[in-house]
Structures are given as structure tokens and as C-alpha cells.
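subagent[fold] <- orchestrator: predict structure for attached chain, return C-alpha cells only, no commentary.
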Amino acid sequence: MNVGMVDRAIRIIVGTALVALALDLLPVQTPYNYLGWIGVVPLFTAIVGLCPLYSLLGISTK
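subagent[fold] -> orchestrator:
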């Protein structure tokens, strides 16, 4: 585990906002709303508590 609590909270907020954009739940409408599905990645890493990129770079926020 290399993701701290503050980092997890930020990832959950950003991931949720991006997925909401992809699902057209936000008032912002662009042709690129489908890119919001990338928000699944920060949500997953927040839930698991492990970021593969942090592991590769030797970073830990925990």
C-alpha cells in the first residue's frame, strides 16, 4: 500500500467527477465526455490503496 488517506480522498473526488462527466450527470456537455471513463483508474487505486505508478517511481504518500 502506497496511497495515503489524503491522496485517497483526492482520488475519490476526482474519479467520481470524471465518471459523472462520462455519464452526462454534470451540466458540462462536450464531444469528449467519454474521456471521463478514465476516472475509473483513480477510483480503483483509491479503493485498493495501491498505485502502480507510485510503485515504479518509488513514491509513497502513506
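orchestrator: received. Logging for downstream: The radius of gyration is 13 Å. The mean pLDDT is 94.
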